[in-house]
Fold these 2 entries.
Entry 1:
Amino acid sequence: MEAEADVMIVGAGISGLATSLGLHRLGIGSFVLESSDSLRTTGFAFTRWINAWKALNALGLADSLHQHHVTLDGNVTSSRITGLQTFEMSFKAEGKHGDHEVRCVKRNL
Ligand SMILES: Cc1cc2nc3c(=O)[nH]c(=O)nc-3n(C[C@H](O)[C@H](O)[C@H](O)COP(=O)(O)OP(=O)(O)OC[C@H]3O[C@@H](n4cnc5c(N)ncnc54)[C@H](O)[C@@H]3O)c2cc1C
């Protein structure tokens, strides 16, 4: 197969496809290579950090995703054997690079 494109992108995951879409909006053609022959649908939710949401917003995709999102305050992990809490992480804490936020879009709403 012959194809002409300004940019070659390896991998049709969310990063590759978002990059291709962003380039397309700027009038730059790209060609996306994907080694897998089928879609993978593992995972239970769509969780991104604040910078990824900024990128999705710039692509005009964030609003539709926000309609189904819940903001996560943090993550608590417990042992199923003892019932004791083993780990806790707040997503509201101010990180090294400033405030961050995690949002989770439930699938199958
Ligand atoms: C087990 C597991 C569960 C997860 N669950 C969740 C979840 O519930 N919610 C969530 O938000 N995130 C989840 N994640 C994280 C999520 O998968 C990643 O954040 C996201 O997929 C990263 O996107 P990406 O485009 O950077 O990479 P990927 O999604 O990994 O995409 C890279 C693509 O490049 C292709 N590729 C690789 N090498 C080549 C090559 N040489 N030539 C051509 N194609 C190539 C791969 O086949 C793949 O399709 C999970 C990850 C794992 C491993």
Entry 2:
Amino acid sequence: MPQINSEATQTNAVHQEQQPTEPQTDTEQVLQPEQRQHVNVNPAQIQTPQIINNKVPVVVFVGPPSSGKSMILVRLAKYLRDEGYTIETDPTFLNTDDYQQDCQEFNDKLNTNIALKGSVKFLLVNVYKDGQEVAKLLEAPGEDFYTTDPMKIKAGKNDMVEPYLSTIITSNNRKSYVVLLDLDSEISFRRDSRHRDSYQQRFLKYFYPNIDKNKDRIILLYNKIDMTMFGNINCCDNIKGARDDAKLYYKQWFSSMKVSSLGGFISSENFVFKTFCTGVFSPQTDGFGEKYQTYNIANNIFPKELWKEITRKF
Ligand SMILES: Nc1nc2c(ncn2[C@@H]2O[C@H](COP(=O)(O)OP(=O)(O)OP(=O)(O)O)[C@@H](O)[C@H]2O)c(=O)[nH]1
Ligand SMILES: [Mg+2]
């Protein structure tokens, strides 16, 4: 698989900025040109999802297919509801039948131990406390960003960010990025360094330059910790081991996401490392032969600690 050629991509990004595009959405019109410089937009998708409230903090879940984004949203939502928050899917995000169905699926499954189907494409979930909206949880950024299909990669499909996401990345909302260090999912990032390296480079190219270190937060999340020797459904009992493992596989992120202070004398990490487990999953088949999964829910400590990190700068 070809690695990203940053020079070629730079040219491509500039070229795309100069092309006539379809009418901009309201939220896009407020962006300043200098804010857009790092984002390579796919113009064909211009009329797609958008977040219309630019005041509420947004929690962006970034991670390859099957890395566990949707189930983290479900797990976090269950925890927050128990803590007195109100959870609602956001109907204004995208006006398509598929999205409305995905919202319905999320709401239905929230009260059960049945896993969401893998087909949920977009999810925007609003979190309220005492009638005030405190956060929006967004599953992003779409399958093509991680595609392993050589033809799609050749066509540059993974080397662009959807317009809705570029709007969010460059918006004034406070943001927490929960970036999944996927190692044990179907696209095995543990086995394939090319996918891993490319994922890291694209995050560093499109997301990272727009991060405001004073307002935003990056959480590198080692999910499915129950599948490793470092933890189980109750806890991560070897956080150092998990961190070293993650660092071995995601060197670029650990080495480049740093901020310096005191005139460059001191440098510190511009992210926090956490582990997570949603639960242990079991395949099931219903009376019609339809396959689904149930799960034994993992300990509250995981969503509790994740929420604490997410909201630290809100
Ligand atoms: N062992 C284990 N498996 C998990 C965990 N979380 C998710 N899984 C498994 O991973 C599968 C995919 O999880 P999803 O939450 O749907 O993943 P996703 O990132 O939303 O996937 P896409 O929407 O396709 O991008 C689930 O159906 C489970 O089988 C976990 O904490 N532990
Ligand atoms: Mg999903």
